[in-house]
Amino acid sequence: MTAVIRPTWTPQTATPVQLRLLEKARRAWREAEEAETAAWAAIQALREAGVPDLSIPEQIEGVSRRTMHRRLGPRSPQEQTDA
Questions:
Q1: What one-character DSSP code corresponds to residue 11?
Q2: What does the DSSP assignment read for 12-51?
Q3: Alpha-carbon distance 68 to 73, whole Å?
Q4: Which of 14, 58, 77, 82 has the most CB atoms at less than 10 Å from its CB?
Q5: Is the separation of the CB atoms in 79 and 49 below 8 Å?
């Protein structure tokens, strides 16, 4: 079996196209993280406005009750009746 030595890639050895695409990927990742944070803040606002946890996943595709509880914490029985 022959060992293959793979060249090490670094930004210093990158082509201009690679650097451009790297920056584009960084920007897209940052924007996606910001959008996800804003989406969960909007879900929390719904909860604070009194929308029941069972209704949120029914109305918003891609939101599950399990994930909502993991990200935002489960509601206590008191919060469910106060809402």
A1: G
A2: GG--HHHHHHHHHHHHHHHHHHHHHHHHHHHHHHHHHTT-
A3: 7
A4: 14
A5: no
| Continuous H helices in 49-76 | 55-59, 65-72
Please answer whether residues 50 and 83 qualify as being in contact, where contact means their C-beta atoms are separated by less than 8 angstroms.
yes
CA angle 54, 55, 61 (to 5 degrees): 105
- Residue 19, sorted as left (phi over 0), alpha (psi -120 to 50) or beta, turns out to be alpha
Whether the Cβ atoms of residue 47 and residue 56 lie closer than 8 Å to each other: yes
pLDDT at 66 over 60: yes
Structural contact between residues 53 and 75, judged by C-beta atoms closer than 8 angstroms: yes
Cβ 56 vs Cβ 68: under 8 Å: yes
